[in-house]
Amino acid sequence: MPEAPYPNPPPALPRPPSTARERTQLEAFLVLRRNPLELWGPAAYQRDVLYGRFLGREQIMLNDPDAIRHVLVANNENYGRNIGTKRVLQPVLGSGLFLAEGAAWRHQRRTVAPALAPRTMPILARHVVLATEEAETELDRVAGGRPVELLPHLQRLALTVAGRSMFSLEMAEFGAGMRALLMRYARRYAQPGFLDLLLPASVRSPLDIGRAAFRAEWLRFVDGLIDARERQAERAPAERPPRDLFDLLAAARDPETGAGFSRAQLRDEVATLIIAGHETTAATLFWACYAAAKLPEHQERIAEEAAAADLSPGNAAAALKGLRYTRAHVDETLRLYPPAFLIVREALGPDTIAGRRIAPGTVVSVSPWVLHRHRRRWRNPDGFDPARFLPGAPPPDRYAYMPFGAGPRVCVGAQFALTEATLVLARLLRAFRIELFGSGTVVPRGFVTTQPDRPVRFLLTRRAH
């Protein structure tokens, strides 16, 4: 249960409108296409388990930590990705770690995990700070008292970090092409269509035809990225330590079988890591900056903390432990605006959840968006309060706060994402005072990740040091 109410509740930030009226199947589908974050009415934020039917299939939504643990941990082998998720993500992620299942997933997880272990964080932190220094210079150039749409800059920054840390490649050559491809896919194919949800996996939907054509184009692009990296490696000394995640992945062997990745597998892992690694972090950074602009007292506290830290490339990893408030601000951002707003699984066999028998084919969902705002799990759940995550605060239940998922399939790059978001936010707010420009409400929209529903402009003012 949440603690007693705040004597002075922290302010709430924007959220989508909701309705208490039960929607028809058609209305629910249209809302799903427009903005999935509007799907859930007040009951979803108050009940532990919700039951329903959608397109003729049983649906269960879980907000109870014990039930969530059962599905994602204790009996996770009984719950696979649902067909809608596979149709939408397979063209860009292939059979990489995010979508793989069974023995293939276990092999990939064992092979990829060491490349993102804590011992690699100093290398990655250096890449983060160097890229952020360049982003600061660019923002200095384009701002100059003029309003700046910050999200594209954050996306380019996160993509630069991903390119350098994963491939030691400058993404100027590839970044624009990758963003154009991904944006085209997002506009045309990333929202599930009616037949995507209704047809069995063995039957292609109309959108699947376009997705297949995109897949071929996308594979050519990723192959070009890998070819460029391999040409670069040919010019490097034969004996040298690994420089990046690509080196680690290419050399990685499953500790149980000794098997490495084939070229096709490596391609899918590269696509998974670079897309997941930059899109989700950019979204988190946008909302962290938005919250800082809306709440200047939080912004100033981060700026003071960052000013006292040595955030140079060589010391960034060591400085992280002193960025306690900045990290708490990131954690609270991930609570209110989790990039992965919905986790969907399908029961492969019969089971019992929260005392109720379920049949194979039942769709089981956990929404971090709802769970993180649940009235029974959090006090003042819509209020932005980093103090929830400061040292000494009671930690939230492990299965009530899960911005990176939970269980065996928890995001393998979670530590990297937190490191990057904390360092970038500290550097940006140390360099600039950030204010919102213009009026109008910004509504979060579930569009692959949690995005603003419109372009948002900020005024950036250089801080005196």
Automatic annotation (TrEMBL):
Keyword Iron part of the UniProt annotation: yes
Listed InterPro entries: Cyt_P450, Cyt_P450_CS, Cyt_P450_E_grp-I, Cyt_P450_sf, Cytochrome_P450_monoxygenase
Binding site for heme: C411
Compositional bias ranges of the Pro residues kind: 1-17
Pfam families referenced in this protein's UniProt entry, alphabetically: p450
Gene Ontology MF: a single term: monooxygenase activity
Matching PROSITE patterns: CYTOCHROME_P450
Superkingdom per UniProt: Bacteria
SUPFAM superfamilies linked to this entry: Cytochrome P450
Coiled coil: none
Keywords, in A-Z order: Heme, Iron, Metal-binding, Monooxygenase, Oxidoreductase
Region (Disordered): 1-20
Cofactor(s) listed in the protein's UniProt record: heme
Sequence similarity: Belongs to the cytochrome P450 family.
Protein name per Swiss-Prot or TrEMBL: Cytochrome P450 family protein
Natural source organism: uncultured Acetobacteraceae bacterium
